[in-house]
TrEMBL record:
<dbReference type="Pfam" id="PF11870">
    <property type="entry name" value="LutB_C"/>
</dbReference>
<dbReference type="Pfam" id="PF02589">
    <property type="entry name" value="LUD_dom"/>
</dbReference>
<feature type="region of interest" description="Disordered">
    <location>
        <begin position="466"/>
        <end position="493"/>
    </location>
</feature>
<protein>
    <submittedName>
        <fullName>Iron-sulfur cluster binding protein</fullName>
    </submittedName>
</protein>
<dbReference type="InterPro" id="IPR003741">
    <property type="entry name" value="LUD_dom"/>
</dbReference>
<dbReference type="GO" id="GO:0051539">
    <property type="term" value="F:4 iron, 4 sulfur cluster binding"/>
</dbReference>
<keyword id="KW-0479">Metal-binding</keyword>
<dbReference type="InterPro" id="IPR017896">
    <property type="entry name" value="4Fe4S_Fe-S-bd"/>
</dbReference>
<dbReference type="Pfam" id="PF13183">
    <property type="entry name" value="Fer4_8"/>
</dbReference>
<dbReference type="GO" id="GO:0006089">
    <property type="term" value="P:lactate metabolic process"/>
</dbReference>
<feature type="domain" description="4Fe-4S ferredoxin-type">
    <location>
        <begin position="305"/>
        <end position="335"/>
    </location>
</feature>
<keyword id="KW-0677">Repeat</keyword>
<dbReference type="InterPro" id="IPR009051">
    <property type="entry name" value="Helical_ferredxn"/>
</dbReference>
<dbReference type="InterPro" id="IPR037171">
    <property type="entry name" value="NagB/RpiA_transferase-like"/>
</dbReference>
<keyword id="KW-0813">Transport</keyword>
<keyword id="KW-0004">4Fe-4S</keyword>
<keyword id="KW-0411">Iron-sulfur</keyword>
Length: 493
């Protein structure tokens, strides 16, 4: 997927003018958000589980090399094969070699954001191998030739009518010529079209929600069961997963699963939770003859030990974007790469560079809702601020912005000058906007007044009002500290 993160502002402009997108985004506020709240409230130990999930991931990241080796040994002890991919290009090469070795003409895929990250579908198509997305949302956007706009609901930007038109246009070759209007009918038709593709596929490719170091197992979570057919029917099963997906034991995986579904979709558990350990064994009725796990780094190890390490705790539930006012207004495509929303605003600069993705950490109100609902308590606002700092230090932000911050910083360090300037500005702007109560144009604030009016200041500044009402001008603890110092002096005398 070609990154367009550097065109974020243009992408946002297009998103705000897309009526269908705006109608679709309303589903998030009425669906995911209240369901997550209800699911969390119904589990008394939910906050404790979040702490435990955070600690599990922190422990793994602190001993990542050990658990990677342990996982690889466990996979190979059970008949599987582990492949190490340092870059996206390495991962594509390995998967293409495995597919060619199996004489693959078609591969079925379950939903996997990491395959989007390495642009796997494009690579397969260029090699003459047809990739078939089996998750309904991924299947829809594959027909539309679009990237996903959400990490758990990839087609959330599509309306029901748009999907109906897509199916009518593409399913005619399968004898489906009636325009369907009901979601259940569309799901049934997609199932009928995909069923034979499962049976014909030479290779099945999946991601993994978790990798269990103890047993060499992978864990897949879906609501459609498509991953089970993808991994069990073809002769060769290929797993692509980031190195951060590890958990130490099955018990730890259970803890992670208890917060995952509740955070993602508001379910107690997803409909299908599948554990896969190695290839088909003697006596098994089904399963692949070969089991391959491709472990992808692609910049992740470079985040370990840095101020961005906490981002590697992410379990891809999507809660941060479901609760983000920015994502809820502009959607996922505006972010210009694979990972949207607050988690994308932190992860994308780490993977493709802040030079390309510097707009993303600036696309935040810092309301803190993302951190508030994260099941593994990732401090997303703090890390977005860290990216803003790096952008500023490298002079990647506009010169006017850096100049403005420099001027503000000069006054902020000089309280008397700051109060004088703000008092003068408030009085002046108040007079300018007195007649209508707002300012349609404002020097140095054209980005604001181009699309909205600026409320005119009314009355005194906050500091002046605070003083006039008899409030103390010092911090609450200052007077107490001063009294304690005075008392200590008296005792010393």
């Amino acid at each position: 997927m070609e990154a367009t993160s550097h065109r974020f502002k243009d992408n946002v402009h297009d998103a705000l003018g897309d009526a269908n997108l705006q109608a679709s985004l309303a589903k998030i506020r009425s669906g995911f958000v209240p369901k997550r709240a209800a699911a969390a409230a119904a589990l008394p130990e939910f906050e404790t589980l979040r702490d435990q999930a955070r600690d599990i991931k922190n422990h793994v990241l602190g001993h990542l090399d050990i658990y990677l080796e342990r996982f690889a040994e466990a996979v190979e002890a059970r008949g599987g094969k582990v492949h190490w991919a340092e870059t996206a290009a390495d991962a594509r090469r390995i998967i293409l070699e495995l597919a060619r070795a199996g004489n693959a003409r078609t591969v079925t895929k379950s939903k996997s954001m990491v395959t989007e990250e390495i642009a796997l579908n494009d690579a397969l198509e260029k090699a003459g191998i047809e990739p078939i997305e089996t998750d309904l949302g991924e299947y829809i956007i594959q027909l539309a030739k679009e990237p996903p706009s959400h990490i758990i609901a990839p087609a959330i930007h599509k309306t029901k009518e748009q999907v109906a038109e897509l199916f009518l246009r593409h399913h005619g070759r399968y004898g489906k010529t009636r325009r369907l209007t009901e979601p259940t009918d569309m799901v049934r038709e997609a199932r009928e079209v995909l069923r034979q593709k499962y049976l014909d596929a030479d290779v099945g490719i999946t991601g993994a929600n978790f990798l269990v170091a103890e047993t060499g197992s992978i864990i897949l979570v879906t609501n459609e069961g498509n991953a089970d057919l993808t991994l069990s029917l073809p002769k060769r099963h290929i797993v692509l997963a980031g190195i951060e997906k590890l958990v130490p034991t099955l018990e730890d995986a259970s803890t992670m699963l208890r917060v995952l579904a509740r955070s993602a979709t508001g379910q107690e558990f997803s409909s299908y939770t599948t554990l896969v350990t190695g290839p088909k064994r003697e006596g098994d009725l089904d399963g692949p003859e070969e089991f391959h796990v491709v472990l992808l780094d692609n910049g992740r190890s470079g985040m370990v030990g840095t101020e961005f390490q906490d981002m590697l705790r992410c379990i891809r539930c999507g809660a941060c974007m479901n609760h983000c006012p920015v994502y809820g207004t502009v959607g996922g495509h505006a972010y210009g790469w694979v990972y949207p929303g607050p988690m994308g605003a932190v992860l994308t600069p780490a993977l493709i560079g802040v030079e390309e993705a510097g707009h993303l950490p600036n696309a935040s109100t810092f309301c803190g809702r993302c951190e508030q609902v994260c099941p593994v308590r990732i401090p997303l606002p703090r890390m977005m601020r860290a990216w803003r700092t790096r952008e500023f230090e490298r002079h990647l932000s506009p010169a006017s912005q850096r100049w403005g911050l420099g001027v503000w910083a000069w006054f902020a360090k000089r309280p008397r000058a700051y109060r004088l300037v703000t008092r003068t500005a408030a009085a002046l702007l108040g007079r300018m906007g007195r007649s209508q109560g707002r300012l349609k144009r404002l020097p140095l604030a054209g980005g604001w007044t181009r699309v909205r009016d600026m409320p005119a200041p009314e009355g005194r500044s906050f500091v002046a009002a605070w003083k006039a009402d008899g409030r103390p001008t010092e911090a609450p603890g200052d007077a107490t500290a001063r009294r304690h110092r005075g008392s200590a002096k008296e005792q010393g005398r």
